Amino acid sequence: MADSGDEAERCRRARSDAARKRGARRWLNHGARPPPAFNRSELDEFELERARRRRASSGNWSAGSSSGHGSAGCSSAGASSSRLVLVKREPEEAVPDAPPRRGVIGPEDYLPPGQEELLERVVLERSARDQAEMEERIRRELEYERLFLETGLTASQAHASKEADLRVMKAEQAKLYIEVDSDSD
Fold it and tell me: Phi first, then psi: what are they for 38, rounded to 5°?
């Protein structure tokens, strides 16, 4: 049971270290030096604490402390843990008996009991309103397309009639030029 708690704590600290590394990388990418809080590694601290607990529980603690290294290590660990910045825990991590997570999230996860029907009604009303707005938008776009098409056809017909008029005028001018030219002989 203690191992599962240790494993959960280890996972939490690994996530915290990863987030800290990402934050430090953002500072380093901009050429700045990250704050000292980014330099710590909770996972290493956790592994040291777990090793100390295992040594203490196995009975080898007295042998380590008689050499003088154990007490110095303990005091330095105590000093480092007093400097540690507390890391925010997620709600499910703070409660050891949290219910298992479900894969599907439903309205009952966010609403007080008995208001699921209200949510369904609101969602249906919103989707009906969105559908009506989309149909109105499509209708307007089709109307604009029809207007542009009519404008283009009208402009094309006007251009065609103008070209026909210009052809007729050119033909008349060519006739006049021939007549004037034939009179000058």
Answer: -80, -10
Q: Taking every pair of C-alpha atoms in the chain, what is the biggest distance, in angstroms?
A: 138
Q: What is the pTM of this model?
A: 0.30
SS3 content of the chain, % helix, strand, coil (to 5): 80, 0, 20
Contact between 20 and 40 under an 8 Å Cβ cutoff? The reply is: yes
The count of other CB atoms within 10 Å of the CB of residue 20 is: 19
Cβ atoms of 65 and 71 closer than 8 Å = yes
Distance CA 80, CA 40 (A): 10
| Predicted confidence (pLDDT) per residue in 15-33, tens digit | 888 887 777 777 777 777 7
Contact 45, 81 (CB under 8 A): yes
